[in-house]
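subagent[fold] <- orchestrator: predict structure for attached chain, return tokens only, no commentary.
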Amino acid sequence: MDKSVPLVTGSVPATAAARAVYFVSDSTGITAETLGSALLANFPAMGFRRHTIPFVDSLAGAHAVVTDINRAAADGLAPIVFTTVKDATVRRALTRAKAVLIDLLGGHLVELEKALGTTASEQLGQFHGVGDIEHYFARMRAVEYAIEHDDGQSGRALDQADVVIIAPSRCGKTPTTMYLALQYGLLVANYPLTDDDFPTDGLPASLAPFAARCFGLTTTPLRLSQVRHERRPNSTYASLAQCTLELRRAEDLYRRNRVPYLNSATKSVEEMSAVIMQSLRLRDKQHPTREARS
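subagent[fold] -> orchestrator:
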């Protein structure tokens, strides 16, 4: 692929209230999207049309981006541009855009260079590079472990799990599991609570030896019903009565067995993962080939 031609992804149809936002990067754009979106989240009442433009690592690419941004500026308010471009020449070219430019790296890199007494590497994409090869392979192993142990499919090597997420179906177990595995390299299994797991007082037999590693999820009956209706419309599985029953039984189980839990109805995967890590003190764990990272 010719990197001099920027690729635009994630655009949303224009609306009268929406303001154009660009995430411009000389690498994948993940850092610009993550940091920029975190800032935009502080303005929930405003609408945004988001554009991610990765691999802007040349003047030709920067000029193409400026042309695109100026076209958007002609339609209304000046676009907001978040950049994580390291090359000073490319950054200067981007300043010609008729936009509010927010450099997410530039000033901080200068400060770090002064503090460390050295210059930053000019190699692109450092933030999301492989970096420490042991940490990279630890994350890949964690993803494989998460896939094998998704939805209670396997009871093998549960003693190696850092956490076992338990919850009724469709409460957010799988996305939280995958996030913890990919982002932090944690070994995470998840287990669906079904009718077969009740009315016993204790945890399911396969999980009982690992009670200290369990974390529960719950949600609101209405939210669970809505999510399940998308999967099985007009089924008993998705009925409000069934969802209410399953959530009540799950929460009773958590309390009886002193399993920490949280309500996933209004929390993002990132927020749930942070709570799980803090509750089970996973940030404090030291692994031979991986360390908890904030």
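orchestrator: received. Logging for downstream: Residues 240-256 form the longest helix (17 residues). The longest strand covers residues 18-25.
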